[in-house]
## 1
Amino acid sequence: MIKLIKSDGKYVHSTEKQTDIYYKVRSGRLKLRIINDEYSNLIYYERPEKRKIRTSNYIISKSGDFKQLNSILKKQFEVLTEVTKHRNIFIKDNIRIHIDKVRKLGDFLEIEIIYKDLSRAKKQMEDLFHWLGLDKNNFIKNSYSDLLIKK
């Protein structure tokens, strides 16, 4: 499944090849994420698109037979786009940092914080911005799928 590269008690690092197939749905977003051509996650999520830093509500269902699942989904939904990327994943506690090389788009940094307490998550994000020297004004609001569709 996920190739574990390092776990020294401070963080976990893994790499994945991901192909995300986005389907046209009435609301939210629906994608089939194929990981390392071995298994997949069907992911439905909703998030406000108007804010720079966005929170998402999502549901994930794991599947081993992604070819059959994709076949069923294509019969029911139009495919919007496919995003292929190589992702380096760094995880520490509830923080996930992704360094992505996205086909046709380039290199990106993505930060996710899984939270129960939104104010604590905002503080963690501010600390990461400061520690990494990131400028909020340089953030890209659009998802990779949106960027590919606009291209």
## 2
Amino acid sequence: MMKKKWLPKLKFFGKWTIIVLLAFILIWPLTIGIYWSLYKGYTAIDATRFPWFRSKIHSVLDQIKPESGEAKKGIALSAAITNRLEEEMASTFGWSANDLIVFPTRWLDNRANRQRGVIFATRMLINFYSTNLAKYGKADAENASLKEAREKHFAFSEDSWWFPSTESEYRKGLELVREYEDDLAAGKAIYNMRSDDMYNMLTFIIGNQFLDQPLGLLVQPNDEVPYTQLDDRIYSTQGIILVLRDFVRTFVTLYPEIKQKGGEENVRIAFRDMEQICTFDPLIVLRGKHDSVTADHRGKMARYLISLRERINDLTQSIRR
């Protein structure tokens, strides 16, 4: 009698246990599927991967070749420095790193951190260009337009929404860089790339002021980095390399002796690593500790950056010899 009494209850319990287990098994794929669909919809209106062929620097390099005059090469390198900043300003949601918390775009932190990386690299390269390449010697005065652009406008905070806005300051900086390029084309400004400038420039790129900054954030031990900061560091690095890729590709294209001295294999691998970084966009950023079965996306980005840094270092040493 007891068995007959409990049998319906056991069947009911077993039925709901199976339903709950099936729901648990299916909810993760369903959730990931919904997230994937939403994310793909977002990427259709706002790019998250940036292969080299999409860079507007292609049009510059179609017009300016290694046999072009030094002034034209200077214009191309100057344009390569600012190109990514211009593309971010003209992107679907514009400059979102300074959006207020009430704006939906404020929550797009991947693009905001990418933009922080972009302005960091733009500042670094325009500073070097202005203080080393836009004059004949160390004791010469800087070009007035470049000096104002780098000290006043590009140095402005990346997250100011108003009074003045970040966008307005960066646009003024870009206008001043264009003024320098116009003066250079008219023979009223200076561009002077010497062999020691090439060496110093590449040394600067791989040094502690430039690439060592993102590398330090990528190789810091996992247990010292909050989970919420993992994607910040990845996408900030991507922004830095987006600027650097335009610049280095332009430099190597216009000065083919760099490839001849440093070896085509070094250049090929450097370009490959930059491409890996610029197209890096995991659906979900994971931290994968030690022998975990999950990916360590920050570690992957670090490996690409270390390899890139070593290849640029090899190019640097080849120029010195």
## 3
Amino acid sequence: MTEYSDGFRARMVQRMTGPKRMSANALAQEVGVQQPTLSRWLREAGTVEDVSKKKPKAKRPQSEGRRPSEWSAEEKVRVVIASGALVDTELGEFLRREGLHEEDLARFRDEVRHAAVAGLTTSKKPRSDEQKRIKDLERELKRKEAALAETAALLVLRKKAGALWGGEGEDT
């Protein structure tokens, strides 16, 4: 396995992210480094605060460089709110700046709407195992109390019938 210096890695990442950026495939053919290695360096550089200290970069949106499916809920809400008052050309520029498609924005709007509705409705929380066990025990206790009450009523009736018609051993 070939070891590359940090400076070389930074230059390759710069070439894949700079103003005249090239794809990892094209760069791999040019410099002889495997494309998956270059792609990994690029992903790792996305987590590093400052890849290149040569130029100060303009503040990028937090969501840039990631797939829309990887965006946080806060980012999705921010985009939905920001896009709410934009018209066609402004919306197109906004979507390009954010790196989104109209379908992504429509999906974000649906997700935000559903999350808002779900947050406003009072739904029952899923029961824990202990709560389910308590509910089952209470149900069984009620059943047994009903059976006990029925047995007690039958005993009382039997006693009254015996007193009214006589004892069990008598022929009447």
## 4
Amino acid sequence: MAVRTTDLDHVGVGVRDLDAAARTYERLGFTLSPFARHAGAVEPGGPTVQRATGNRCAMLGAGYIELIAIIDPKLPSGDMAARIAAREGIHIVAFGCDDPAATNAALKEAGFAARGTVYLERMVDTPQGPRMAKFDRVPVAASDVPEGVIFHLKHLTRDVIWQPQLLKHVNGAVALDEVVIHVADLDEAARRFERQLGVRGAGNGGTRTFNLPRGRCVLVDSTALPRADAPKAPAVVGITVTTSSLDQAEKVLTEKGVTHARTGARIAVDPKETCGVFLTFSPA
């Protein structure tokens, strides 16, 4: 049985100050969802409890960017508190799945320490009033995915978080197209991600690309990520967001004084402007 990954669902950017990070991403031209707190089970089948984290999200037509921070350090956070204390940047990658139970079984068959479906929820403001967003998450052991908190996810209430008014961004952003992960051993990581995602990687040199039904996961080694300011492997380092207008995205960045560089059909934003994320805009 192979894992069936549907898409690149979202990334989670761990930040120390959620209000400051929200201002940063609004400056980049993103519309953000209102603040929400997480609750959910700690273990599969466990009771729903309040979690330590809260978020605001840039919801895109496909996928989204989550800004996540520790709100109450006395509550359970997994290892997120330690990760954020070590560095701000992308710590979460969620891949979509249609059947969490089948995904868990396939991951176990592929040699991962998958431990069942873990329920997660958060109350979300909507034009009709507060509603509960619900998710089933399939985590694997951190030892299996040293690059970050990488899991499979099924949305149980998609309409609650993909609200039409949240999908309009002045930078023209329409989709989370790609996540870039810096790995220590490219061949080993490529074999591991092939088993986790259920698709074959392609590429040579220092890059392997996994094309999903929607979105891509790109693994790179140090030869393909030569920048000295990049997080050292293993780490999730960057994303590509598609925009309906590259010129509009550049106009927003320029007007807000955001350091960036345009090369052909891509705009790279300085990670000092993004809470440590190597953010690239490309045409839709």
